[in-house]
Amino acid sequence: MSFALSNGYELWLNYDKISDDTVLKTYQNQLQSVFVEEGGATMQAIRKELEMGLGGLLDLEIRFESLPSSGNQLVVSKYGSLPKDFKEDINIDNLNSEGYIIKHIEKSGKDYLIITGKEEIGLLYGTFHFLRALKMHQSLDAMDAEESPKVDIRMLNHWDNLDRTIERGYSGFSIWNWQTLPDYIDQRYIDYARANASIGINGTALTNVNANALILTPQYLEKVKALADVFRPYGLKVYLTARFSAPLEIGGLETADPLDPKVIQWWKEKTTEIYKSIPDFGGFLVKANSEGQPGPQNYGRTHLDGAKVLANALAPHNGTVIWRAFVYSEHDADDRAKQAYSEFVPDDGKYPDNVLIQVKNGPIDFQPREPFHPMFGAMPNTPLMMEFQITKEYLGFATHLVYLPKLFEEVLKSDTYQKGKGSTVAKVVDGSLYNKKLTGMAGVSNIGTDANWTGHPFGQADWYGFGRLAWDPSMESEAIADEWLRCTFGNNEKFIKPVKKMMLESREAVVNYMNPLGLHHLFDTSHHYGPGPWVGNLSRPEWNPVYYHKADEDGIGFDRTKTGSNALSQYAPEFEEKFGNPKTCPEEYLLWFHHLPWDYQLKSGRTLWDGLGIKYQQGVDQVKQMINTWENMEPYVDEYRHNQVSMLLGIQLKEAKWWRDACMLYFQTFSKMDFPKEMESPENTLQHYQSLKFPYAPGIRPQWD
Known about the structure:
By secondary structure, the protein is of the alpha/beta class. It has helices at about 20-30, 40-60, 85, 120-135, 185-200, 220-230, 245-250, 260-275, 305-315, 335-345, 405-410, 425-430, 460-470, 475-490, 495-515, 545-550, 575-580, 590-595, 610-630, 640-670, 685-690, and strands at about 35, 75-80, 100-105, 110-115, 145, 155, 205, 235-240, 285, 320-325, 355-360, 385-390, 440-445. The chain contains 21 helices and 13 strands. An 8-stranded parallel beta barrel has the order 6-7-8-9-10-11-12-13. Strands 1-2-4-3-5 form a 5-stranded mixed sheet.
C-alpha cells in the first residue's frame, strides 16, 4: 500500500481523492452540481472550500449551477433564500444564528442535498460538516443533521508573546509575525481560520495572558485589524489580553485604579478606538493579581471592581470581559486549591451581564488529573467559562502522545451535585444548569510554526477535540477520536480500531507514570519538564512540589478534609461525603484529598506503597504497548508520519521510565520500603535524577541580553 507523504500541514482538512472506488462513484453521481447562494465574504469562503474539498475528494472540476439544476445537486443557501417548496421540508425554528441543517430532499424527481441555516456562518459550519461526512464515507441519502452550538464563545487562548516566543509553547514560534503585519498576510493565517471554523471555534485571543500593554497601541492595533479582517469570513472574532496597568504604561496616567475617573475614561476611549477599526472585536481577556500580574488589588480594590470598568467600556459595543479566576497569593497561607473560590464566590451575582469568569478545569493548574474546580456550580448567578489547556505543559510537552479530549470529557461529565444528581460541569458550562445567557469555553493553544502546527502529529487531535467539545460539551471523546482519525489518516478499520484504542488509553498512561493515585504537581521547577518531587526551596511555598505531596515517614498525600485544609467544604455535600472518606473516595483522587500511611490498604489488597509502584510501572508498560501498536500500523500510514510518531514514542518511553524511577526513589527515602515485585529496577540513582538540569527547556520565555 502506498501513500503520499504528509508533513501534517493540512491537518484534518486534507482533501485527497477518495480511494474507495464504490464510494467515489456514488458521490460523483450524487453531487453533479453545486449551488451556492450569492452573498458576502463568508459565502465566498464556502464556495472556495467546496471547490477545494469536492474537487480533491471527488477528483473532478465542480460545476456551479443555478437552482434548480438538471441533476443531483448540493444546495448551500440561507433558509430565507430557499425556494418556497424547498422550505416545506425544513424547519429551522430550533436553530440559533450559528446553527445549520443538512437534509436530503426530493423535488420533481430530482435529488437535492440542502445545507441551510439562518445566517451565513451557519452555512459555513454546515459545509465543513458535509465535507467531514464525505471524508468519513457517510451516506448522503441518509444525511439528516440539525446542529446549533451549545456554547456561545468557543475560543483559543494563545499565550504568544510579541517577540514570537510562546509561554508553554512546544510547537515552534508564534504564527503571528508582527514584524510583517499588516502588509504581509501569511497563508497560514487563512488556513488557521479555516481549521478553526471547521470545528466551530469562533474566537481567538491572540496574545499571552501575562500581557504586554503594547498590543493596545495604535502600532499594534493596525496589525490586529489585519488579522481580524482575515478571520472575519470564517466567523472568528479577535480578543485581546488587557494588561491592567496599561493606563500607566501606555496611557500616561499616574494610576490604574479602577475607581479613578481618569482610568475609567481611558478604558472607554481605548475600547472605542479598537471598535472603530475592528467592529466585531470580541473583548478583553484579563489575568489580574496572579503570579505577579498587576490588577485591582494593587489599589485595594476587588476583581469585581476591575471587571466592571472593562465591562462598562465594552457594553456599548456588545463586547465581553473574560476575567480569569486563576489567582493565588503568596500572602494567603491557605491551601492554594481554595483561593480562587474564596475570592470570587462571595461576589456571585454582582458582575455585569457581559462578564464571564474563566475558570481552569481543576483547582490547581492543568495537572494530568485533578478533580473539577469547586467554583463550577457554586456561582449560580454568574456565568463561568471553562478553561482547558490544549498545550501539554504538564503532560509531556509536544513529545508525549496524550489524547486530551479524554481528560476534557472526564471533567465535563463530573457531577457537581449543586442542583442534585446529574448537575454536571458540562451543564454549568453550557448554561443549562442555571439558565445562563452567556456561555464560553477556552482552550490554551498548542499551535506554532511547526510544519504540522502542533509538534506531535497526534497533538492535532487535541485542538480538533477541543473545538468539537466546545461546540457540544456532551460529545464522547471516542466519537471525536474516530472522526479525527478518519479525516486525518483515512477509513481503514485495521488502522482506526487499534489506534483509537491507543488514543483513548493514552491519558491514563500519562497519569500512571507521572502522578498516580491523586498525586499532583510533582514537576520540576519553572519549566515543568520532568519530575522534581524533591523541590522545596522556591520562594513561594505553593510553587514547591513538596507542598503538594507532603511525603514524610508517616505517609503521603494532601489532607483536604476537615482535619486538613477543608477544601472539600467548597464542594456540594454529596461530593464532600464521598470524597472525604478514603474508603469511598475514588482511588484516582485518593492522595489529592487524603494524607495516608505507606501501608494503607488499597482496594486491591496491596499497600499504598506497592500501589504507587505498580501504577508507575503500569504507565511505562502502557507506553510500551503504544509503541507496539504503532509499529504494527506501518502498512497503513505514510512513512513520514509513521517515523515521526515512532521517534516521539521512543522519547515518551524514556521519559516515562525517568518519571517512575525518580519519583519512586525519592518517595522511598520516606517509606523505607522495598519496591513492589511488579516494578522494574530503577536505571539510575536518586542523586543522578536530582542532578539533572534543563536551563533551555522549551516553553519558558528566554531572557534576552
